[in-house]
Amino acid sequence: MAKIIYTHTDEAPLLATYSFLPVVEAYAGKAGVEVETRDISVAARILAQFGLADDALTELGELAKTPEANIIKLPNISASIPQLKAAIRELQEKGFDIPDYPESPDNAEEQEIRARYDKVKGSAVNPVLREGNSDRRAPASVKNYAKTHPHTNKPFAEGSKTSVATMGEHDFASNEKSVTLPADDTLSIVLETADGEKVVLKEGLKVLEGEIVDATRMEAAALQSFLAKTLEQAKADDVLYSVHLKATMMKVSDPIIFGHVVRAYFDDVFEKYGAALAAAELSPNDGLGGILAGLDALPNGAEIKAAFDEALASGPRLSYVNSDKGITNLHVPSDVIVDASMPAMIRNGGRLWGADGGEDDTLAVIPDSSYAGVFQAVIDDVKTNGPLDPATIGSVPNVGLMAQAAEEYGSHDKTFEIPAAGTVRVLNAAGEALLEQDVEPGDIWRACQTKDIPVQDWVKLAVTRARATGSPAIFWLNEARAHDREIIAKVNAYLQDHDTEGLDIRIMAPADAAKLSVERMRKGEDTISVTGNVLRDYNTDLFPILELGTSAKMLSVVPLIAGGGLFETGAGGSAPKHVQQLVEENYLRWDSLGEFFALVPSLEKYAEQADAPAAQVLADALDRATGTFLNEDRSPGRKLGTTDNRGSHFYLALYWAEELAAQTEDAELAAAFKPLAETLRANEAKIAEELISVQGKPADIGGYYYLDAEKTAAVMRPSATFNEALASL
Ligand SMILES: NC(=O)C1=CN([C@@H]2O[C@H](COP(=O)(O)OP(=O)(O)OC[C@H]3O[C@@H](n4cnc5c(N)ncnc54)[C@H](OP(=O)(O)O)[C@@H]3O)[C@@H](O)[C@H]2O)C=CC1
Ligand SMILES: O=C(O)CCC(=O)C(=O)O
Ligand SMILES: [Mg+2]
């Protein structure tokens, strides 16, 4: 039977769900639309690993491969090791019998436990559900709203020293080799060390005909000298030092790179105390925060702490995530995530925050050069031409290759920190080497896979969007990169399958494509960016944040290859800072527009799947209601005393009920919603007051990763009048 699955996730979107889902369930229920929930929060996924909760993620992953799928996916935490450990601790404190995270497993049992936790680590949800490519764009209503209510993109100061530092050689981009498989095969990855020993890194890797496989490495020695150089440069230029990685989605490689940065910054400290820190299992890969927290347990902890303090005082000035709390850019690998952190910096005139909370220019370090040039291109443009004006600029929507863990975001099980010098070979079943790389100890070697059917689907989606909009579509692909050359060959071949007459379809290297797209934006022109998986991620924060002030208001549809639908809510994440604010002052600034936008096509899909015209009526009414919601400017403000997330849900419910009452396609639904619409309208002031009056005091939600459902519902549904009205439907 058709049903919509609404996901329980983490942090701000989870809080919002406590308020919004009751509205969805009440309205859908009246129209006979089945809505079920599944808990894919990091806490639930941990419990599922130990048989203490349903494995909803595996279930939804299977569902996503069927035409029946209709899933609304809210953003979730992609947990770094420090977050995973905190979630485990919280669950243990709540009485769940789960083991500690084994830092360095040294027996079979610990290895088994570690393997279970590794399934929860990092970006473990999205790749499982994303069985389709991604279509992310600002709906016309949002773009118009941004034009009439423009946010501020601050100018870069005259002579701004902000720039991007990237390796450009000896990195993943420069060392890449790539091959397209002529037939189905089973591959293995073998390191042959300099003394002739063969170490099997991976075997039984099944690949399909037409699949692209890449191999590359980040050279550890080159990374270290690059980092030393950037530290010197930041010191000499007296700018803030900041590193921007994706330790969540690139959950194997990027924590290692992050660890190199921590080690490079605190070079002298690690020189002197590295062995003691390693013996205490305090790893730089988990960030400075974890190390400092663990020092108390060491006999010479105070001495080591003093050495870290001294290094911080004498090194280049670090950028801070939260200067009040002393949290630096190097504290937690998942605090600064490149997709959101770079556009936020650009929107802020190229400035980040220093130790004293003051803003300053920064050297933004993005070690691998595959995509760093995109950010530099945008920075160059705004330095020369001034900030982009949201009131007038065009849009850069995205069609992203994402299905079946495409490209880098599927590389974790094929990423290795190399133990010994030698050669890594990707071998086919016949034992022939398809790809080979010489390696040195410490190099980060990885292989990526890109299947052919997803590429075909992506090209089709690009042509469909170009046709639907009349906008030029640019494939952001770089002839100079081995992987991109294989993709370009496929793009050129699969474009032949479509009618492209009259369409403007181009292929350009990412930095050039970024430059052109921004130039066109300034003229008010739209340009579809058709990208691989990583640039999908980056561009769908970068451009929305510059255009709309946030990526939360995006429509993010994933037409699943098997025919179902995955509807992501916005293009951003789970906004941890918003939770802090709720807990401190009972105010939630989370904007649920992404949820509203996802629900419309989900209801449309349901109407089609269940042959249920009432679902289409709900969808159409919701679509009109979100228009009114935007016109009436009902998204949450940022400050206490204004409509927050809960108030915004009330207004959406009001407009949606009014649209349902007024429509004429379904008289029964109109009659059912008329009294509710009247009650909500009549009590508007009272409900708004009830929702605002609770603000300003701390709120108790009974946890962080594993919330107390009753307490959270009480916090998120504080208006008795609104609750009664909904219950009366
Ligand atoms: N699809 C997914 O599942 C995704 C998950 N993530 C995960 O989210 C977590 C946080 O990532 P982070 O890099 O901080 O990025 P986020 O996008 O979560 O947050 C960055 C900032 O964007 C603003 N923001 C994001 N969403 C909203 C919204 N709906 N309403 C209002 N403002 C919003 C907030 O700004 P302000 O504080 O100024 O209000 C927020 O602090 C990580 O665990 C990450 O892995 C990240 C991206 C996608
Ligand atoms: O899965 C994640 O960790 C983040 C996903 C993300 O940032 C995106 O899809 O835009
Ligand atoms: Mg992203």
From TrEMBL:
The record marks K246, Y409 as: Critical for catalysis. Its EC number is 1.1.1.42. Signal peptide: none annotated. Keywords: Glyoxylate bypass, Magnesium, Metal-binding, NADP, Oxidoreductase, Tricarboxylic acid cycle. The keyword Disulfide bond does not apply. It comes from the Bacteria. SUPFAM superfamilies: Isocitrate/Isopropylmalate dehydrogenase-like. D-threo-isocitrate binds at R136, R536. Substrate binds at S123, A124, V125, N126, P127, V128, L129, R130. NADP(+) binds at K73, L74, P75, N76, I77, S78, N126, G573, S574, H578, R589, W590, D591, R638. Its cofactor is Mg(2+); Mn(2+). Binds 1 Mg(2+) or Mn(2+) ion per subunit. It catalyses: D-threo-isocitrate + NADP(+) = 2-oxoglutarate + CO2 + NADPH. Mg(2+) binds at D339, D537, D541. One of its GO terms (molecular function) is metal ion binding. GO terms for biological process: glyoxylate cycle; tricarboxylic acid cycle. InterPro entries: Isocitrate_DH_NADP_mono. It holds the Pfam family IDH. It is an enzyme of class 1 (oxidoreductase). Belongs to the monomeric-type IDH family. This is Isocitrate dehydrogenase [NADP]. It comes from Nocardioides gansuensis.
